[in-house]
Amino acid sequence: MDTVLLLPRLLVPVRPRLQVLEQMAVVLEGETIKAVLPRSEAIATYQDAGRIELPEHVLLPGFINMHTHSAMSLLRGYADDLNLQVWLNEHIWPIEKAFVGPDFVHDGTRLAIAEMLRGGTTFFNDLYFFPEVTAAAAVEAGIRACIGLPVIDVPTAWAGDENDYIDKGLRVSESWQNEPLLNTAFSPHAPYSVGDDALRRIAKISTERDLRVHMHVLESGWEVDESIRQHGKPTLERLHDVGLLNERLLAVHMTQLNGTDLTALAGADVNVIHCPESNLKLGNGICEVGKLHDHGVNLALGTDSAASNNDLDLLAESRTAALLAKGYSADPCVMNAFQALEMLTINAAKALGMSNQLGSIEAGKLADLCAVRLDSLHTTPMYDVVSHLIYTVSSQQVSHVWVGGRMLIQDGGFLHLDVDEIIDKAKYWEQKITAQARAARSKEYNLHE
Question: In order of start, what are the domains of the chain with their CATH numbers?
Fold first, then answer.
């Protein structure tokens, strides 16, 4: 088993908290971190080990993107400046009905993976159709993923009804259960698009198999009203009644909270996934992360899809999250830079139930890491590296990425992905989707003549 020493200028291990270390080495052995030692001691102890000098870099845990629809990278910029229901019902769902299949999901997921890796993301938590294709693309690329098993109350190219979605999802979960890069979660789309019987069945499976449940929750004001109209009760009360309000729930967005909700979330140990840029772009409101943090709720970050963000840049997302929290609360102390970094790393690992394996640089954990170059104009001078990471650094400064000790990005270049091929495939879909959109507009125009 090969041993490699990583020798960065600075090390931010995340755990212990608030530490920034100099003259340190991280010892990789196979897929794990064997030790974190002073540089001189590591070199003396592991004289035959390979060495990777990172003289102008900070070494960090790999970032974890806690909410993606990766294949939707092929719809980046397709429908912008629209409210959520118009965006979904009149644009996204119709174009998905026309094009989504295994090839679309494969090519879109590879595009998303390349973008995420280049920005330091080593794990993504996905929710999309044809999850078996997403799983295969992730393993092929060498990135870690939690594969969402979608459930929705309308037929799609992947499944016919709610029970069909669940049955197919179980087969996908079982087929990938021995793959070390993957785990799975059930992903009912939203409370308004999945019925009570299906939610109860998902809750039972989640409990029996210890699976996470990844779900859009309280994303818009419309959803709040719709829950009362459809079910006669608020969303979180309904989720409690069907057995989903617990520590396995990854509740995405959460922009429509009241005081009772905060207490319920904290009491049930629910994990909240904050997607500030998507929420801002769709005008859905703002997740009150300051209040959630004060109540002890675990908070992590996701980008959402490139169709509603429009990128998968977690460093940019963390900056938006920190600044938005300060502006919304009128308190500059809300969500400091280190707390924002925790949302990208250890908090996300906790949400996944993997904080003993991921999210910090500690001996025995998986070697999912990224290095960021600091010798650029806009990161000079530097007095506080964590502040720079959140408020200054660009994702293009990510220079190296490792997943399970395997280097995937070196000096900003891909070692195992054919980026030219990925871009060519994306352009192919751009041409197909553009032609479809033009034909639809032409038909609509003719009908109105």
Answer: 3-61+361-414 (2.30.40.10), 63-351 (3.20.20.140)
